[in-house]
Amino acid sequence: MGRNRRRKAHNKENKERRVEDNNNKKKVDDVKIIDLNSKLKDDEDEGTPLLSKSVGTQVSVVENCTSNGTQTSQENTKLKTTQSPEPHLIGLNPKTKPTLRHRDYYLHYLCHVCKTIPKSSQKVSCAKCKLVTYCSMEHKREHWPSHADVCQALGELFQQTNFKNVTPDDFRKIRVNMLEQCEKAIERPLEKSEKEIILYYNRCFECYERDDNLLKSCNICKHISFCKDHAIQKNHDKYCSSLVVYRDIVLHIIGDDLVSIYFPDTFSKQFEEVDMKTLCSKETDSDLESAFLSELATSPLSVLRSLKLVFGSFKNVPGKLCIHVIGAENDFELSAIEKWEIFLAHYLSCSEIILVFIGPELFQEGSTHFTSCEECEVWNKRIIMKFHGNVLYHDYVQGPDFVKPDLICSFNPGIYRSTGFNQTDTWEETIIQILRQDVPVLITAYTEIEILKDVERIEKTAKLHFLQTPSLNEFSSLKPFLSFVNDEVSPIIFKNHFYTVFKKC
């Protein structure tokens, strides 16, 4: 895996499954800001972990999986030490390609059946709820059997609710309450696309008017609308192209397409001098390809930037480096897991890099140790990856497998939230254990308000010394998701968009 070899990646998106249990619904906190971006995280992070071809040869999956494709705690993935050949791909091993169907998506301006943008003369809306669009009466009738129960509930809820000129926070609370009331009315969990009907229906982004006859949508993105009394926001150009990319991503997922991505020499030589957008633009003029490329690269590059802040230069990074990744998830930190080797092993001169992924939602357990790169073998470098699933960080720290870190990372953790894994607040003890390690900490967030609230909560435990105050991350992902937590500020969010690096004083 030399520096001059190009890396090809296939991003294959898979269907998310239904919400399994009504009891797992998130409660609304009328005092604090509601973060439904976390609640709907699985809606946004489409797909199962994308294992590289080389890592795919190292993973032996236990056959007795649950019916929805996930493994039980007793049926964890076992990792074996092997050496993969060159060249290898980041993406799904085609021989083990899953057969799960993709989930449905809702965008108010797309025909809900065929996902085309109907012309004005063709457009047909659901007569009862008035929230779903079709390109023809035929597609409206085709969708009706699966839409009927939720349609009646939504029609009644929207008729009973006054949205006009409420505050943005109240508007969020109203929509969360409608999610819960709708599920009670239909006596089943809402599909993710049905949740999106409530969260992202067509309305004036200023006063929340929803009468289609009074609304005019942006001619480009089609997503943002305003009524006759409100002009489109001046800063809409800032988000318009990203909303188009989001639509392209949805159509890409539904269309079962593949996106080819390369990790070229520029990534290994230029990243310190530019930002993610510039890096991606050097390799492709496709916004869609840039979105997927940046999603893979954002976390390793954020770590590298943090290491430079901590040690002054890469030359000062210790020869044996250990990094803890807290709250790791299979579909983000472990997606195309080879990305960590591609970036870290080829930027740093460390002889040994240990990456410890810890999180209650991880499927993997155990460790793998591989040196698939010929140059790494020549340089006597090795990457060791350890996986601790079904465990919280403060429990891992006090367990027998603990390894002292040089850097602790947590990507988009939402530390400020009062409800987290299993609807409980597990961060208090974890914050204490993070600070006890007395090492630099990297935290990222989707939005500025979230990163500030994360820091505010941590500062209640100890005084912090900032190596990087909360700031925009130059190596943020470029893959957009629809926003909920601050949609009055921006209709889209990005992973790792803001970051901070600190130590306990």
From TrEMBL:
GO molecular function: zinc ion binding
Residue ranges, compositional bias (Polar residues): 67-85
Basic residues: compositionally biased ranges: 1-10
Residue spans of biased composition, Basic and acidic residues class: 11-29
Residue segments, region Disordered: 1-29, 67-96
Residue ranges annotated for the MYND-type domain, each copy included: 111-151
Xref: InterPro entries: Mss51-like_C, Znf_MYND
Signal peptide: none
Keywords, alphabetical: Metal-binding, Zinc, Zinc-finger
Gene3D superfamilies associated with the record: 6.10.140.2220
Descriptive protein name: Uncharacterized protein LOC103517194
Organism: Diaphorina citri
Gene that specifies this protein: LOC103517194
